[in-house]
Design a protein that fits this description.
Largest sheet: 6 strands, mixed
Low-confidence stretches: 1-14
Structural class: alpha/beta
Distance between the termini: 38 Å
Strand content: 5-15%
Number of strands: 6
């Protein structure tokens, strides 16, 4: 796919075999962590997607479900299967970006090597690349499209627009922010003098048509479901309140954390260097990188002036930013490349150990791995035992993340019912109208009331989710009678332990 090893690739290190073996070893380490670390709730939720094939879903387009479906077919309904394509996609993205950097900068030594190293040193690639989320396929297809753009520029063969169009369509099938990739390419075509000749090339229109066809399943699904997904995601842009600097500071901090601090500084410096190369020397490659970075940067900065931007949202800017850091970074930045890589891999190693064995006894508020990942299999067994003791027929939860974890981890024979309007957009089996069930909710959400359609018929109990004796969260258990016709949405969720 990347024509490796090529003449350009051999220039990365002089020893392409050693570089590729190191990447393979890193990928194997990530597969081991993927197998050992418990699932976060969203991964179980996306696993449910993979069991209900659809053209799109309530929260996101379908690509993450396709990734998980393929992985579980290869490795089974286990954490490794759900995450299997993640480390492989990061490795493939590394090769694509390295080859693209070499094609853009044929006169600069080791630019591909440093692009790959900086990209893998980010926590977004090192840790986020293990988790099965929509950001992962989006990172891959952004990298694929950047590589296709590099092939276009190095070969000047217009048929590469068909490949670029395919990459853009697949990016949109991964996450709606794929539209920013299209915006960046259009900005490059309009604003870069050396790229404007492509506006007259017929293959550009062909690639645009292929992009629309590729992304059409999401458009059709939204049309059939009153645009519920587009409204949900697009509505976040209007969540802002009055002007405030708080969220902008959070945005900068989160990006420095996910990119790791030194890589973040190098990316900013490299992006500024690319801007100077574009404006002073009409460097087409520098212009492309700037145009791929600029729309997303402006969008998220604008949103952060009034509302919170989740740290993972700008993740798709990292491939171009890492290329800019390796290609256009200032001279002083070269001395910081190795420390950046060592720090990034070191931080990732700490996260790996914390997620798998709870290496450091951090307070709950600081230990995301404890709160999000720890103790789910044991907790599901406890909840099922309580259900059996109270002679209830199912577990029921109105928190979609909790319901998804219960569905994935509950023992064989335990039915799990999800209560939420979102489940009505899935092709799932409806819950029986009248059911005696055990309602499970996080203790922090227990306000004494019950969702519509539930009537308490038994006592309230409490169970805990823990890791190594440390509390992750407490949960309330209430035996209820469920009338599914009175709920806002209910469905019988698929089980991993059939």
């Amino acid at each position: 796919m990347t024509s490796l090893p090529s003449k350009q690739t051999r220039g990365m290190t002089g020893r392409p075999g050693a570089w590729l073996w190191a990447l393979l070893a890193l990928t194997v380490v990530r597969w081991v962590v993927a197998a050992k670390a418990p699932l976060v709730p969203d991964e179980s939720y996306y696993w449910i997607w993979s069991q209900v094939p659809q053209a799109s879903y309530y929260d996101h387009p379908p690509m993450v479900a396709l990734f998980i479906r393929a992985g579980t077919l290869l490795a089974g309904n286990h954490p490794l299967g759900i995450r299997f394509l993640g480390p492989a996609a990061i490795a493939a993205s590394t090769l694509l970006l390295a080859d693209a950097a070499e094609r853009f900068q044929q006169n600069r030594q080791q630019v591909g090597l440093w692009t790959g190293c900086l990209f893998n040193a980010t926590l977004m690639a090192g840790v986020g690349g293990i988790l099965a989320t929509p950001d992962l396929p989006q990172l891959f297809f952004w990298s694929f499209t950047i590589w296709a753009l590099a092939k276009l520029e190095s070969s000047q063969k217009g048929w590469w627009w068909w490949v670029i169009g395919l990459g853009c369509g697949l990016a949109i099938l991964s996450k709606y922010t794929g539209i920013l990739l299209i915006a960046g390419i259009l900005l490059w075509l309009i604003s870069c003098l050396k790229a404007r000749h492509w506006l007259r090339h017929p293959a550009l229109l062909g690639g645009a048509c292929l992009m629309v066809v590729t992304a059409s399943p999401v458009i059709v699904w939204n049309w059939q479901h009153q645009f519920v997904s587009l409204i949900k995601q697009g509505g976040r842009l209007g969540d802002g309140g009055s002007l405030t600097w708080r969220y902008l500071v959070e945005l900068v901090g989160s990006q420095a954390g996910l990119a790791t601090p030194i890589v973040f500084v190098l990316c900013v410096a490299g992006s500024l260097g690319a801007w100077q190369a574009w404006r002073r020397h009409q460097d087409s490659a520098a212009a492309l990188l700037c145009c791929l970075i600029l729309p997303g940067t402006l969008l998220f900065i604008w949103q952060a002036t009034g509302s919170r931007v989740q740290g993972n949202w700008p993740s798709m800017l990292l491939p171009a930013a890492c290329m800019a850091a390796a290609s256009y970074g200032p001279a002083w930045g070269q001395a910081w490349r190795k420390p950046a890589v060592f720090l990034g891999f070191g931080l990732a190693a700490v996260v790996y150990l914390q997620a798998t064995i709870g290496l450091i006894p951090l307070p709950n508020k600081l230990d995301v791995t404890l709160v999000r990942m720890a103790g789910w299999p044991e907790f599901a067994r406890q909840a099922n035992q309580a259900r059996a003791n109270q002679q209830a027929t199912a577990l029921v939860a109105d928190n979609y993340a909790l319901a998804s974890q219960l569905a994935f981890w509950a023992p064989k024979g335990c039915q799990v019912i999800g209560l939420s309007p979102r489940w009505s957009t899935f092709n799932l089996q409806p819950a029986r109208r009248l059911t005696e069930a055990l309602y499970v909710r996080p203790e922090r959400d227990d306000d004494g009331s019950l969702p519509a359609g539930l009537q308490a018929i038994g006592p309230t109990n409490t169970i805990s989710r823990t890791r190594n004796g440390r509390l992750a969260e407490n949960y309330r258990l209430i035996k209820v009678r469920l009338d599914s016709q009175q709920t806002e949405g209910s469905a019988l969720l698929p089980s991993a332990n059939k």
